[in-house]
Every structure is written in structure tokens, then in C-alpha cells.
Amino acid sequence: MKHTLPSLSRLICAALVMGMGLPAFAQGDAGHAHEQKAQKKHTEAHADSGSDTKHAGHEEHENAATELALDELKALGGVVAIAGPTTLKRTVTLPGEIRLDKEAVAHVSPRYAAQIVEVNARIGDVVEAGDTLAVAESSQTLQRFELKSLVGGTVIDRHASLGEQLQPSDAAFEIADLTRLWVDIALYPRQIGRIKQGQPVRLTTAFGPKPVTATVDYIAPLVDEQLRTGLARVYLDNEAGHWKPGMFVEAEVTLAESPVAVAVPPSALINYEGETVVFVREGERWHPRPVTLGEESREQVEILSGLEAGEAYVSEGGFVVKANLLKSELEAGHHH
Description:
CATH architecture of the largest domain: Beta Barrel
Order of helices and strands: HHHEHEEEEEEEEEEEEEEEEEEEEEEEH
Number of strands: 24
Strand order of the largest sheet: 14-13-17-3-12-16-15
Shape: elongated
Radius of gyration: 31 Å
Low-confidence stretches: 1-6, 16-60
Mean pLDDT: 83
Largest sheet: 7 strands, antiparallel
Helix content: 10-25%
Number of helices: 5
CATH class of the largest domain: Mainly Beta
Distance between the termini: 80 Å
């Protein structure tokens, strides 16, 4: 079985076009909150010059809370989840290209020099093995013979036109089985040793079919001499015909999986007064709980401390709770 390296330069260019990047967890913070924090510390310093400002700040942070009914939070787009264990995936995203399965492509040629006298198939036609694609007339004997498809598939190219003279070296038709395609993934030098056969791959494209999960089926034994990049290949099931050769894709390869005690989605992380917090429900109130982050993936972030398994927290829409908290603090400041 012969494998060929793809035009990897196209794949690397595609990576730039597709704008791949890693998830960012930074959330926008209100400038008024920083000004209010500075004003509080300044007032405390004058009230008690011997107090520990940093310690006082932490006490305020721990006591901060706001009331917001669950139905109101959900109406504003918030989502509440229960903290618990999960499996964290370490992944790498690489550029890929959908290509024909070269082992499922057949060329139909005349047995000897002949003229095409009848054409039965056009580009895009689906044919079965044994179907007559054209009829040719021998240039020497004037006997007619049929050009038949050797495989079942789709006519993707045709060089046989009525009256055209063809030689045995000419490909009159090109037939390809499009129900299985190749996804050729470019491996940068530092990734060559990390990508292995059997690893899960999530394939996505900006404009096209829904993401699918497959596995790495083949690793090329050679490295491109010019680009110094390697090649990984996925055999993609395309029975539904949604994927098209020539498409550029993002291939997210799972390098390793590890269980963690507590993890949250990146959307749960909120920047509050210079700290990363998760809004946790305690009684009828929501508290901005500072958290320590560990390993992270595209979908989950490990929580090393600050959130325990079984606790209810805001997994989406934490900015709504933050806005409510800032509003409460502002109103409390005006009352004083």
C-alpha cells in the first residue's frame, strides 16, 4: 500500500486562514469595581493605620454576596451546575485537508488507440462496476468496444468526448469512491513524536458538516524534506456525502486523558476584583469564590481549590451575578 505526503504547505496556510487559537478565559471587568476597591482600602487605612490592608481586602471578598433567584438567573441566560469529577483531555489542534482515498480511485482507458463514438457518463454520475461509460472504435480494425467502469463510485473527471482520439495511455474517465475519504493532518516538528496511531481526533470545519470524531489511522514514515513536517491520516467515513475533497479542517487530537476531582467549563470563570472566581450558591445567596486553576482543555478547567464536589455554581452567565453584586455594593456605598 503506497502512501503519499500531501501538499503540506497548503495545510499550514489553511491553519492561518482558519484562525485557530486556544480558548481564553479572561473576562471583562468593570473599571468602577477597581475604583471602588481602591476607595475602600484608602478609607480603611485612615480609620486604622495599623491594620493589614491585604487581610481586610480578603475579608471583604469572602463576605461579598448577592441574592438572585434561580428563575430570574435562568431567565437572564444563566445556567447552574453541580461541581463534580470529570475526565480532562489534553489536546492539540492541527490543520488538515480532506482528500480522495487514493486506494479507491480507478482510471478507465482504451485498450488500444481508438476514437470515441458514444459517451454515456458525465462528471458527477454515480456508476456501478461494469457500467458502460463510453463506446470506442479501434483506429486499426474499426471494431467497436465498450469502456466499462472497473469500480463503483462517482465520475470525478472525464477526458472522453465524442469523436476524440484516445491512446491506451490516456485516462478516459476517473472514478472515485467518495464514501470513504482521507484526512491528511500536518504535523509540526514538535508534534511528530506526540501524535500516534489510534488517538481520538475531532474534525471541524468553519463552513460545512457538523464536527465528527474519528481516530488517527496512519502515521507517515517520512518527513517532508522542504517543510520538515510529518503526516497523520484519518480514514473518514463519508457515507452521507457531507465531506468534500479539498476542504480544509481543524483536527483536534487528544494526546492524553486524566481524571480530575472537580472541573468547570471556561464560561464559569469570572474576573472579580482582580481574582478569578466562580459564583457558588450558599443558602439563598451567590458568593464569588476565588479558585485555583489546574490543567485545562478546550471544554473544561480543573479546579484545585475553592470549589468542592457537590456544590452548586453558575456555569454560564456568571456576568449576570457579577453585575447584580456590583449593583448591590454600589447601592450599599451610597447608603453610607
